[in-house]
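#help-structures

NK: newbie question. if I give both the sequence and a SMILES, will the prediction place the ligand too? trying with pyridoxal-5'-phosphate
OV: yes, paste both and it writes out the complex. here, I ran yours:
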Amino acid sequence: MTVFDLRSDTVTQPTAEMRRAMAAAEVGDDVWGEDPTVNALEARAAELLGKEAAVFVSSGTMGNLVSLMAHVPRGGEIIAGAQSHIVRDEAAGHAVVVGASVLQLRDRPDGTLDPAEVAAAFRDPTDPHEPTTSLIAIENAHSHSGNQPISLADTERMAAVARGRGVPLHVDGARFFNAVVALGVRASDLARPADSVTFCLSKGLACPAGSVVTGSAAFIGRARRARKLLGGGMRQAGVLAAAGLIALQDGDAGMIARLADDHANARRLAELLAELPGVRSPGDIAQPGGDHEPLDPARVRTNFVLFRVAADRAAFLAAAEVRGVRLDYYPHGQVRAATNSGIAARDVEAVAAGIAAALDEVTVRPQVAVGP
Ligand SMILES: Cc1ncc(COP(=O)(O)O)c(C=O)c1O
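OV: that's the protein plus ligand as structure tokens.
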């Protein structure tokens, strides 16, 4: 049976070209700054995002954590969305490691924060009772709203609030290139308003591991020190960085441009699912459990299709799995199908058919009385 794995884009396998490059990578001791392949990856990432410098880290979580450590003092406070990965999914590293609190704001359905709410959330720096607002952190693309890309204009609005209050803006760009491709902008333009941007190589870009943090040379110096403190100095890490260099190549040689295929496949899948009576809108993240409208394919702008089912969710996911369609539980009662490099355009109809059959199996129909 063919298995279609749409649980996440983290399930992607390195390409044959990546594996060849990894095997042949020239390496050195990266903690001493001597790994030529890591150095080349960091230079390429900095160039692409239009920043002075970059540092290669093991994961998106570490990228965010070293960024927080480099930006935020103990007793500082981070303003972030309540549904953001930093708040929900990073084991409270901001509290455990950084010694900072997070002031959580409502994420809007388009993945943005309200600039007026952000401005109003700043603490009084002259009051010794209060934490010190030290950073605004946003997520682009924004996972819990369905991986919505955050526009350059929205990023600039957030940067203006940050600049006006003298704090930096961090972008958790785990899927930054999905946003870049969906918006049709240059990565350096979308990154420009931010002081720091992280991105993951290990998601839609299909590398086996690794993320990159970008920013000013001074910030990256502090992030590099934080990486060492966390035990993230990886020595001959060029073996991993080599895959990243393949992914970040321009055009069809790299893995960025092809994200457009994942987006088109996700949109097509959403169109097919929207025709199924048992498939419902994922609802509004601001009001979890809220509406149960039909799925709107126009909201699928990158590679996530979030939806709910008018059936028992666990039974549905198990029935889909039996048919070779692997989907993931997502918060707020949602299901996630994330298109990725393992799913071709020709697979989309088979995935939708598997979902339709699984729903059919687990949908309880009202009993119709027969006979007199
Ligand atoms: C928005 C966002 N930020 C950060 C991360 C963390 O990445 P990693 O799993 O590599 O630690 C993820 C992972 O899914 C993510 O979705």
